[in-house]
Amino acid sequence: MIRALGLSVTVGDRDLVTGATFDIHAGDKVGLVGRNGAGKTTLLRTISGARRADGGTVMITGPLGFLPQDPRVDGGRHKELVLPYVLSARGLDEQQRELERFRVAMEADPTTKAIAQYSKAEERFGADGGYRAEADVYRILAGLGLPAARATSTIGVLSGGERRRVELARILFGGTDNLILDEPTNHLDVDAKLWLMGFLRSYRGTLLVVSHDLELLDQAITRVLHVDEGDLREYKGTYSQYQVSRVQDEERLSKLAARQEAEIGRLSTLADKVRHSSAKRAKLAKSLDKRVDRLASEQVTPIQKARTVRYKFPEPPACGRDVLDVRGLEKSFGTRTIWAGIDFGIRRGERLLVLGLNGAGKTTMLRILAGVEPYDDGEIAFGHNVSVGYYAQEHEGIQSGVSVLDHMRGGVLTTETERRGALGAFGLVGDVAHQDAGTLSGGEKTKLALAQLVAARHNVLLLDEPTNNLDPASRTAVAQALGAWPGTILLVSHDPEFVEALAPDQALLLPEGDLDYWSNDLLDLVPLA
After folding, report:
1. What is the dihedral of CA 429, 433, 437, 442, to 10 degrees?
2. Which of 3, 12, 133, 464 has the CB geometry, 3.0–4.6 Å to 393, for a possible disulfide?
3. From the CA atom positions of the chain, what is the Rg in Å?
4. Helix residue spans in 426-524 (DSSP H)
């Protein structure tokens, strides 16, 4: 159970939540929703205990599994194998090692004490589910789209998306009474999302989740908490039912606020008219003033309506007709060859979608083309006057300790007004410009990274999951802006609607290297991307 009493969360001089009280019981599946920057991630971190509350209390009954939006594996564990790392969520990795020590000691010297130590450890291991644990781990990893071979890989060789899935697998395997998950479907293909939805539907504990995956919210949750401008409101039902209720609330509270405002105005005007007429009327004016004060204290605050979001990318600078030519490209990690003999080209204004199973090297391909990852063999040739901008799914270009505005320096925008204008085009306005970029939400980091691309005036964009963490309105706006942009795009995305909006010309299937002209039939393969 998760209980919040008078919870307040403040960042800087901004109140994200004030005096919120709610209970989440076993079996409750609660979705926390709101626009990017409303404070969802900060609120989750506060409830989980990763951040201190600024007021009120949070009480959690039973153990908690928390998946942050940007999970980081302890640097000392990068050389650890995936399987024991996941098993460690229930302490079974240490039990395995202890059991093996007792077995070796017993075989070397089978005394009564040694046999008893081994028997006791084996009994505890079996009672804790140790003998079926590895099968459970493989099942969870497979459900989240990680093949069995990855269980014997070290954590350090995994891609960012794979590490995130391992963290999620570890939390799910932990079997805690409470789950708090921040964007659990990031980097998951459709099959893995479906598996996760099924897991969460059957989960009997307490679930609090932030997700911009509307399908997940519709299928897995029973209540919604909406956070915006310091206000936390609760709605019963799925995300679709919440949307209907939210619109009804907006209309109802707007009409009620208007009626209250009109009545306060009428009574105030009447009080002013009679205030100085006579002693009797002065008494009436005081009575009217009290009614005005009471109405003002009870006055409702209208709900802010959803904002219309529009983004625009400026015209790209001119470049040659042939933008990129790749011949015989090969990449390996250690003894494992990711792909070899990759050939493809792209011309000005074309859009190329990179497809492939998890671990096929899609992110690696974009990193190589961006010049941040070396390759083993082959040739890469960019055309005349090509300027390449890279959007990294892990927000690698965003640095903690550096302000949002300072991230915009170094491009073609020379004045603070121009840089603020580019930020404002993506909804990053006001004091956010001076905020430490490391404290931004995932959606705000996405918007900052996109603003950086706009500021640099590139004519070729390498986009790796550019819609992760974006709220629905922002995701649609980014799709429309890029769909209308005449530059060249190489894209990796798990979002079929986003891909359809960009209307690719070609698709490159990895690791085979097959190149095909795009048709909407290939949308069925996007979940593999």
Report:
1. 0
2. 464
3. 28
4. 442-456, 472-484, 496-502
